[in-house]
Amino acid sequence: MKIKVKDNNYFIDIVYKNDEGLINYLDENHESKFLVITDENVLNIYEKRIESFMKGRDYFIYSFPAGENSKSIENYIKINEFLSKMNFNRGDKIIAFGGGVVGDISGFVASTYLRGIGFISVPTTLLSMIDSSVGGKNGVNFLSLKNQIGSFYFPEYVHIDYSFLKTLDKRNINNGMAEIFKYSVLKDESLFKYLRDSDNLNYEKIISTSLNIKLSFVKDDEKDKGKRQKLNLGHTLGHGIESLSNYSLNHGESIGIGTIYMARASYKLGISEKDYSKDLINAFNKYELPTHYDFDTDEILKVLKHDKKIKANMINEIFPVRIGEVISKRITFDELRKVIELGKDDE
Ligand SMILES: NC(=O)c1ccc[n+]([C@@H]2O[C@H](COP(=O)([O-])OP(=O)(O)OC[C@H]3O[C@@H](n4cnc5c(N)ncnc54)[C@H](O)[C@@H]3O)[C@@H](O)[C@H]2O)c1
């Protein structure tokens, strides 16, 4: 399946165990030198595969330890050093081959090296396939703050081969699944029902549906000033929970819990007619996703004070109206306290 992202002029291929689109793209750019950026886990599993589609080309592989700690300014500098030493120039390209960590740092390097060189994205986790590989956000963590330094910059081509998911562990699959549930709450009730009821998921279908939903929110708002913010459903609380759990809960798990709390708060505030948190909890149980986290509201508010989305003590929060529709409301930090309290489970 092919998706054309008209606004930013690139294609996304969604395939199963098929490098053809990638090879065609590389062939069209045969004069370029390539740097394949990946992490050590992914390299261990897929070195042969990388070698096979890069065969006969001028390329290097750059790998670093897997994990969020590699999304650092130090690593960013090292990659830039490598590119400079190897005389990469404007016509050369970066291939991000890995999960969101690889994608975020590679895109950031690509956007700043020589004021911008081409990059292509080959996401290998479910989360990166349905979220981070599109939308143009790149960056690194800095001073313990997530994505503190970064850029908006789009890939030239995205190659999604969901056969890579075969080697991904269940927890990382579910990390992506939670984001797919979020998309369903934003815009697509039938996607929700499909996830809830299907026993044999069609990945091509859920990846393409998710990407189309994400792209519809990014369209006309690349820089995240308006409707794109709806993609942050569950994220304010989710980021707080992720941080309070000392990252023992991952991003997807945390924003999943955040989405459940927002659905419960919406019902108690009269924004939704039904308590959709119950439907979400039922569906999440099927995927063994956590649905609850105990926290102290003051503690979480301390963490949330640093949230990039807060401006002049106000924050745009996203509230589910029903599964498939949300609204955005500008609320004060005090109102946020109330929303968080309402989101907690009384039982
Ligand atoms: N730019 C964006 O819009 C955006 C959106 C969401 C998340 N993110 C970022 O993405 C990052 C999280 O991404 P992630 O969940 O992909 O994490 P990740 O990149 O750390 O990958 C998770 C783990 O899976 C391993 N892995 C990757 N592909 C594999 C495969 N096919 N088989 C086996 N193991 C594999 C990795 O080595 C790693 O250990 C975070 O830094 C987050 O901030 C960015």
Q: Sheet with the most strands? A: 7 strands, mixed
Rg, alpha carbons: 20 Å
- Reading off the top of the CATH hierarchy, the class of the largest domain is best stated as Mainly Alpha
Q: How many DSSP H or I helices?
A: 13
Reported CATH architecture of the largest domain? Up-down Bundle
| Total domains | 2
Mean pLDDT over the full residue set = 94
Q: What is the total tally of β strands?
A: 11
* Parts with pLDDT < 50 across at least 5 consecutive residues: none
How much of the residues is beta strand, in percent?
A: 15-25%
Sheet with most strands: strand arrangement: 1-2-9-6-5-3-4
Distance between the termini: 45 Å
CATH superfamily of the largest domain, called what?
Answer: Dehydroquinate synthase-like - alpha domain
The SSE string, one letter per element, is: EEHEHEHEHEHEEEHHHHHHHEEH
Helix and strand content put the structural class at alpha/beta
The gross shape turns out to be globular
Question: What hetero molecules are bound to the protein chains?
Answer: nicotinamide-adenine-dinucleotide
Plain-language structure description:
By secondary structure, the protein is of the alpha/beta class. It folds into two domains: about 1-165, Rossmann fold (3-Layer(aba) Sandwich); about 170-345, Dehydroquinate synthase-like, alpha domain, CATH 1.20.1090. Helix content is about 45%, strand content about 20%. The chain has helices at about 20-30, 40-55, 75-85, 100-110, 125-130, 170-185, 190-195, 205-220, 235-245, 250-270, 275-285, 295-305, 335-345, and strands at about 1-5, 10-15, 35-40, 60-65, 95-100, 120-125, 135-140, 145-150, 155-160, 315-320, 325-330. Strands 1-2-9-6-5-3-4 form a seven-stranded mixed sheet, sandwiched between helices. Strands 7-8 form a two-stranded antiparallel ribbon. Helix 6 (about 170-185) crosses helix 8 (about 205-220). The protein is globular and about 60 Å long. The mean pLDDT is about 95. Nicotinamide-adenine-dinucleotide binds near residues 102, 135, 164, 168 and 172. Nicotinamide-adenine-dinucleotide binds near residues 127, 164 and 168.
